[in-house]
Amino acid sequence: MTMKTSFRLILTGLTALALLLSACTVPGGQNLGEVRSTHQRVADPQVPTEDLAALTAGERAFALDLYQQLRTTEGNLFYSPYSITLALAMTYAGARNQTETEMAQTMHYDLAQTALHPAFNGLDQALMSRAENIPAEQGDGFTLSVANALWGQVDYAFQAEFLDLLAENYGAGMQTVDYANDAEGARQLINQWVADETRDKIKDLLQPGAVDSLTRLVLTNAIYFKAGWINTFDETLTAEAPFYKLDGSTANIPMMHVNEGFGYLAGDGFQAIELPYVGGDVSMVVLLPDEGQLEAFEAGLNAAQLDSIMTQMGYEQLNLALPKFKIESEFGLGDALQAMGMTQAFSPDADFSGMTGNRELHIGAVIHKAFVDVNETGTEAAAATAVIMELTMAPAEPINVTVDRPFLFMIYDRPTGTILFMGRVVEP
Predict the structure, then answer these.
(1) What is the pLDDT of residues 382-407, one digit of tens each?
(2) What is the CATH number of domain 230-324+383-425?
(3) CA distances from 189 to 88, 135, 166, 201, 410 (A)
(4) For the whole model, what pTM was predicted?
(5) For the domain 8-227+327-371, what is the CATH superfamily, name and number?
(6) Smallest Cα–Cα separation from 250: which of 404, 407, 77?
(7) Residue of 72, 109, 172, 201 with fewest CB within 10 Å of its CB?
(8) Nearest one of 140, 142, 145, 139 to 127, comparing CA atoms
(9) CA angle, corner 269, sides to 65 and 314, nearest 5?
(10) How far is CA 48 from CA 5, 40, 215, 305, 386, in A?
């Protein structure tokens, strides 16, 4: 029996991930449009503190491991580690034996399956609660939403335990579609769901031909983030200024300006700046290597170094100049994930029997697409982080920080340490 499988991941200032699994057999029998699991999401999971810490530590480790694979990509880069790890966690729920082991090692899932999925539920709901910290006068200045869904072949048999687990921990019910007879209709339905969940920022997540008559399951994740700065940039001060590119040339780009207190660290060969969004839990962290040090800084960046940076960051008055930028990225992740050790999941030997009771399914390809827009008022993307530190004593002179050369950035949830988004700007 031949098998064909495909996997598509898309992200944009928001993020959407779709996992496509295919096979040749068509067992079972249900009604089109039926949602198979009737279980409700666990509203208040009791997650031990140590489990949440282990989960988020693993997410940071995966985020930086993946960055090491992607950093050779030319030009700007943007992706959502949280979206990727969340979507693959739903897939991991059906993995068994060597496939399960390889996925756990690659994704840094250090918790047993029985603890991992409730921990993801707890983390997800903690992130969704960030808007509750927004002062009433700031109203709609902060939006962070995460949604998951399953799209299964109408007459294909899936394990009830698998469907119930995803419903209870990810809020992902399964809607049945008919890939066998109307793959294009299924594709359009999934794309519409993604567009709706991302405020139309991600359209056509699945390109024509992404699903076909052999597709049996699509797992989707969508994240939308939009937030205003606590300390906004004065639009009247935005002006053209030089940005020094890697090839030694310069480009005039819109540079934003603000003089306020921020989290700041002058490290060995780099500077780090933390710009909080309204609410104070989510922030953008800018990592600015010294001139000529981008490659060396990238090569040495890992989860331990990032944790050290975030721990050491203090509070300083900054005269900050930051580029106004917009990035859209699209790239394949299959090769990167396999290079990181997740190989069997992409092979005919894959074991996702926890989904179906058999070993008919495997992952084919992963495509990631992302969008972020950073301007004077805030950021539109998919994920975030911010921290507010009280200024106890104003320094005599503000520190001048001009981000006029290639830099890294991330949208970071300070209370949990979750990296929602990460990227690199080499040409605003």
Answers:
(1) 322 111 112 223 344 788 999 999 99
(2) 2.30.39.10
(3) 21, 37, 20, 16, 32
(4) 0.86
(5) Antithrombin, subunit I, domain 2 (3.30.497.10)
(6) 404
(7) 72
(8) 145
(9) 85
(10) 37, 21, 38, 26, 24
